[in-house]
UniProtKB/TrEMBL annotation:
GO molecular function, one term: serine-type endopeptidase inhibitor activity
Cross-referenced InterPro entries: Serpin_CS (IPR023795), Serpin_dom (IPR023796), Serpin_fam (IPR000215), Serpin_sf (IPR036186), Serpin_sf_1 (IPR042178), Serpin_sf_2 (IPR042185)
Organism this protein belongs to: Parnassius mnemosyne (clouded apollo)
SMART domains: SERPIN
Keywords annotated in UniProt: Protease inhibitor, Serine protease inhibitor, Signal
Alphabetical list of PROSITE patterns matching this protein: SERPIN
Signal peptide (UniProt feature, chain positions): 1-18
Official protein name in the record: Serpin domain-containing protein
Stretches assigned to the Serpin domain: 139-496
Family: Belongs to the serpin family.
Lineage: superkingdom: Eukaryota
Pfam families: Serpin
One Gene Ontology cellular component: extracellular space
């Protein structure tokens, strides 16, 4: 059984009339006291970065937070932040007091703390509130997109990553909007995506997850050196200069880059008319995922059956069948059955949220919370008679209106302050277009030689002791990274034939 996911997203930056640059703002972060495993996070003394002495400020504006091992008193994790309403710093001084790190620690004491020679990258890093922010952002996206009829598919990871990159070059209220929607401080988002990318690169599996970013700049555009450094080192983004005077050639160069990064799975997604003569930059993010089920579905068991659409009509589609142990349960709060299908090595899982008969998927979505998505991961395995349609879903959309709905609009307006990205003859840029494409394909076939690995399969029978999970009506899907604890994509399937 293979699942293929292709995500493409681009943001195109145009120049606009010159605007006055605003000073960068450092954000405060409140970290409440809480326990986690053997680690206690607390507000510590506030250290003045310039004179190296205690500095009396309100703890609500904490500059210095530490995580301690309660048994040894050892400092495990450390934060530094600047209260923007207390002291004014120059850019040099701000860079000198960037956050050291922001992670909390796994209950099993697997510590990942930058600068700690004894630390190591766990195979199950818990990124806590930061990956929770991506999950929360994903739900906002899905609920915002649900205003449109039909199938919905998006990668909150891809969109959040590109917004986080823009966040690094935004100042003032432009940056504030992104920070509020992502629920991530600029420093934290840059470090988070650096660590997530590094964690994925360390994996060894037949499951394939490729992600690539590129900041494509006009030859005449002067990119900010700090932004370029963050793009390369935190987001592992390429930075490329091309001539936009020939839109056809420029779009082909970008498409060739995307194809190369995704093993030719994404082709010709940027049309020539998307670029214009005054284009200054194109920010591109592409994801390709191909997963092998932990236990494959048997092709000979796939049979045509009826899928009931929301409008009352019916369609006959091929249904895959399996009878085995799946993590599943009923969530009566949202009137749904929930089931997780694991991928090889349990690195990922496909979560299926199936509304009860007569319950609209949109009503379920309105009651779905981040906490529930995390709770579903802890379901116990039960014997299930599963029937699920084989399908391919494609989504191609301009997310300009969606980002506006979520509260991000300045980046598209003449009020944009993106001078941290760069300038062109003293002119401040803005973003003109935001495009997000996704393709999800589910079938019985493995996507690599490893799919030939033998797995035991329990034969279907008429025994009614198994739980029935018949996905014959609109449902919600979440592709979850079990090790990073973050959703890679989320969607609503209304019609599996589209």
């Amino acid at each position: 059984m293979a699942l293929k996911l292709v995500i493409y997203m681009s943001l195109i930056i145009w120049n606009v009339n010159s605007q006055r640059s605003q000073n960068p703002i450092m954000y405060q972060q409140n970290i409440p006291d809480f326990y986690m495993g053997q680690t206690f996070i607390e507000n510590s003394h506030h250290l003045h970065p310039q004179i190296n002495s205690d500095y009396n400020i309100n703890p609500r504006h904490n500059m210095f937070s530490r995580g301690y091992d309660k048994s040894t008193g050892q400092i495990l994790v450390e934060n530094r932040f600047v209260p923007d309403n207390k002291v004014s710093y120059s850019q040099t001084e701000i860079q000198a007091i960037q956050p050291i790190h922001y992670h909390t620690v796994q209950p099993d004491q697997q510590i990942y703390s930058e600068g700690n020679e004894h630390s190591k990258m766990s195979q199950n890093i818990n990124f806590d509130n930061n990956t929770f922010a991506i999950t929360s952002f994903g739900l906002k996206l899905l609920k915002g997109m649900s205003r449109d009829p039909g199938n919905i598919l998006a990668s909150p990871y891809s969109i959040a990553m590109l917004l986080a990159l823009i966040q690094q070059g935004a100042f003032g209220e432009t940056q504030n909007e992104i920070t509020k929607v992502l629920q991530l401080m600029p420093e934290s988002s840059a470090e988070l995506f650096r660590d997530l990318t590094n964690a994925v690169k360390k994996r060894k599996s037949h499951n394939i997850w490729k992600i690539a970013s590129n900041v494509v700049l006009a030859d005449t555009f002067s990119v900010d050196s700090r932004f370029k450094s963050i793009a390369i080192h935190n987001f592992e983004s390429d930075v490329t200069n091309i001539n936009f005077n020939n839109p056809l050639e420029a779009s082909q160069m970008i498409n060739n880059w995307v194809a190369a990064k995704t093993n030719n799975k994404i082709l010709n997604l940027l049309a020539p008319d998307a670029l214009q003569l005054d284009t200054l930059a194109v920010l591109v993010n592409a994801i390709y995922f191909k997963g092998i089920w932990e236990t494959k579905f048997r092709t000979e068991l796939t049979k045509p059956k009826t899928f009931n659409l929301s409008n009352g009509s019916k369609k006959v589609v091929p249904f895959m069948h399996a009878r085995r142990m799946f993590r599943t349960d009923i969530d009566s709060d949202i009137h749904s059955q929930v089931l997780l299908i694991p991928f090889e090595k349990a690195q990922y899982s496909m979560m299926i949220i199936l509304p009860f008969e007569g319950i609209n998927a949109l009503d379920v979505l309105s009651s779905l919370t981040e906490q529930k998505l995390y709770a579903y991961q802890k379901f116990t395995a039960k014997e299930v008679q599963l029937e699920i349609p084989r399908f391919t879903v494609k989504s191609e959309r301009n997310i300009f209106d969606l980002l506006n709905f979520l509260g991000i609009w300045r980046i598209f307006s003449n009020e944009a302050n993106l001078t941290g990205i760069g300038t062109y003859q003293g002119i401040t840029p803005r973003i003109s277009t935001a495009v997000h494409n996704a393709v999800l394909s589910i079938d019985e076939q493995g996507g690599s030689a490893a799919a030939a690995t033998a797995f035991s399969v329990v034969a279907l029978s008429n025994d009614d002791s198994a739980i029935t999970f018949h996905v014959n009506r609109p449902f919600l899907i979440v592709l979850w990274d079990n090790q990073l604890n973050v959703p890679l994509f989320m969607g609503k399937i209304e019609d599996p034939t589209l």
